[in-house]
Design brief:
eight-stranded parallel sheet; TIM Barrel; alpha/beta; 10 helices; 274 residues
């Protein structure tokens, strides 16, 4: 069994229906797919999408890339959405939330401050509703960690992790899993591959971030149809097995167990549907 812990299945880039994407993923051993929201505008979208297939669960949050156009009232809307959805067993986390200090327009002092405000407010909501978080940590690992320490008890996944070994250890010490996906399949991604090979497998989860962060064998620039899909997770898992020199069955079992550990409501959903 494989679990795609991060997939934007509602993205407009997909030419296939959600049913087709889920079926293809299932045929490749993917049992569950976590769909994070990115803005108030798609809270309802991901909720309705998740209701259509037992393989789908979701998270609600405001992505840092969507913070520039977000209103403070969107945080109130998120709180209301979480309150209404907390009884839904398919709600597994608050996310995608975090900080992004890579995109130029997000690096201005004013926008960094707004990002931090939204990030901390959403950490508080996660603690309020006893939910883990799906973290966006691009070029922002130290700041992300700073706020996690201010809010002890926060757990979840550092999505698309690309930090140092020291930063990875700090996330793991706080009880977080690290998400690895398509970036790990590129031979030039030496730091990511080294981390994926060396850290304890008990802290590793797999993800696609589909339709983005495609693996090395897809060339979206040459062919726009070669975007990432959740079915690619099986081959991504094979790369992890090769990097770690471990049996693929062990990769499947442990990464799934880790996903269930950091997303306990997903574990409950699995028990309910087994």
């Amino acid at each position: 069994m494989l679990i795609d812990t991060h997939c934007h299945l509602d993205a407009e880039e997909f030419s296939e229906s959600a049913a087709e994407l889920v079926q293809a993923a299932r045929q490749n051993g993917v049992r569950y797919i976590v769909i994070p929201a990115v803005a108030k505008a798609n809270f309802t979208t991901v909720q309705h999408l998740a209701q259509q297939h037992t393989e789908l669960v979701y998270a609600l949050g405001i992505h840092p890339l969507f913070v520039p156009q977000a209103e403070l009232s969107d945080l109130d809307a998120l709180e209301q959405a979480l309150e209404q959805a907390v009884a839904d067993p398919r709600l597994v986390a608050v996310g995608e939330i975090g900080l992004d200090f890579f995109v130029p327009e997000l690096k201005t002092p004013a926008m960094q401050e707004k990002q931090r405000y939204f990030y901390e407010a959403q950490l508080k909501l996660a603690r309020q509703f006893d939910l883990p978080v799906l973290l966006h940590v691009r070029r922002s690992q130290d700041q992300i960690l700073k706020y996690l320490r201010r809010h002890p008890g926060s757990t979840g996944i550092a999505h698309a992790f690309n930090g140092s070994h020291q930063q990875a250890q700090q996330f793991m010490d706080l009880g977080f899993a690290l998400g690895f996906g398509g970036a790990m399949t590129f031979t030039r991604a030496k730091q990511i591959r080294r981390l994926a090979a060396e850290i304890a497998l008990a802290h590793v989860v797999l993800e696609t971030d589909a339709p983005d962060i495609g693996p090395a064998w897809l060339d979206r620039k040459a062919d726009p149809a070669q975007y990432n899909r959740p079915a690619e997770l099986a081959a991504i898992a094979e790369v992890l097995a090769q990097l770690r020199q471990q049996p693929i069955d062990q990769i499947h079992a442990q990464t799934s167990a880790t996903a269930f550990s950091v997303l306990p409501r997903l574990a409950q959903w699995h028990q309910q549907n087994s």
